């Protein structure tokens, strides 16, 4: 992602956080019946319980921005990340889940877990300034934002702010790097080459034709196919195609049940 793009994202994130702070102050003194923003105790257990409750209430979608600031306690916080990821498995069947995180916070074990799931969490990676947000059904969000005044955790139901968070999420998601590519193939060049092979397999192209298109020998092509199958944990070419689609490396085959919006 270019430096210009990262500057634009940072500006958007900072603007979103400033609006959240402003709206929290505006709604702080309203009665509970009118309150559209609820300030949550920053104690970890309280935040975790609040997030877990929202995940269980989700009916259609859960979108997550996970971009906290690294610290000296990162090794211990990564253990907490695993607990937080576990909350997602409490979502109801049929709820689509997308996770945006940073390269530093990407959990390869969690990415690996998605390979065997019928409805995997779609995971993408981007460089982002610190912000943590859980957006549920586009109707409520849990936001943890850092500011000069310290950390503030809020449950937000303000339509205007939810729309801003949604637009922010979509703008980053669109250009973010698919975690499955990084996990399975290592870098963009190898991922692009592997996607070409997967497309040939999906289209039923013969090994001879595919090898000629890629300007490699049939033997080399078949070695690439075997390596891709191994990386995806697939026992057949068909299964490799299914798992590639689940990871977002290929579009799902026509008539297949969608696994999510990402």
TrEMBL record:
One GO term (biological process): regulation of DNA-templated transcription
InterPro entries associated with the record: Sig_transdc_resp-reg_C-effctor, TrmB-like, Tscrpt_reg_LuxR_C, WH-like_DNA-bd_sf
Family annotation (Gene3D superfamilies): Winged helix-like DNA-binding domain superfamily/Winged helix DNA-binding domain
GO molecular function terms listed in the Swiss-Prot or TrEMBL record: DNA binding
HTH luxR-type domain span: 195-244
PANTHER family cross-referenced by the UniProt entry: HTH-TYPE TRANSCRIPTIONAL REGULATOR TRMBL2
Protein's name according to its UniProt entry: LuxR family transcriptional regulator
Organism: Streptomyces malaysiensis subsp. samsunensis
């Amino acid at each position: 992602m270019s430096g210009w793009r990262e500057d634009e994202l940072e500006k958007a994130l900072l603007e979103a956080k400033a609006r959240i702070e402003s709206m929290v102050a505006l709604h702080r003194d309203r009665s509970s019946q009118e309150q559209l923003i609820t300030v949550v105790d920053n104690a970890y257990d309280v935040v975790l319980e609040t997030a877990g409750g929202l995940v269980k209430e989700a009916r259609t979608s859960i979108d997550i921005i996970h971009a906290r600031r690294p610290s000296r306690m990162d090794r211990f916080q990564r253990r907490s990340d695993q607990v937080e990821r576990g909350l997602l498995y409490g979502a109801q069947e049929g709820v689509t889940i997308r996770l945006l995180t940073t390269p530093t916070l990407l959990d390869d074990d969690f990415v690996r877990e998605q390979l065997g799931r019928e409805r995997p969490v779609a995971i993408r990676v981007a460089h982002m300034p610190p912000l943590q947000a859980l957006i549920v059904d586009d109707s409520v969000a849990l936001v943890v934002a850092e500011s000069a005044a310290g950390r503030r955790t809020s449950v937000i139901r303000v339509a205007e702010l939810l729309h801003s968070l949604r637009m922010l999420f979509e703008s980053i998601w669109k250009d973010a790097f698919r975690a499955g590519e990084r996990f399975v193939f290592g870098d963009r060049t190898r991922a692009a080459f592997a996607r070409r092979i997967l497309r040939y397999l999906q289209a039923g192209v013969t090994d001879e034709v595919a090898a000629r298109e890629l300007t490699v020998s049939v033997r080399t092509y078949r070695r690439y196919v075997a390596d891709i199958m191994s990386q995806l944990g697939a026992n057949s070419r068909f299964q490799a195609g299914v798992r590639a689609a689940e990871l977002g490396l290929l579009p799902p085959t026509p008539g297949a049940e969608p696994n999510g919006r990402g």
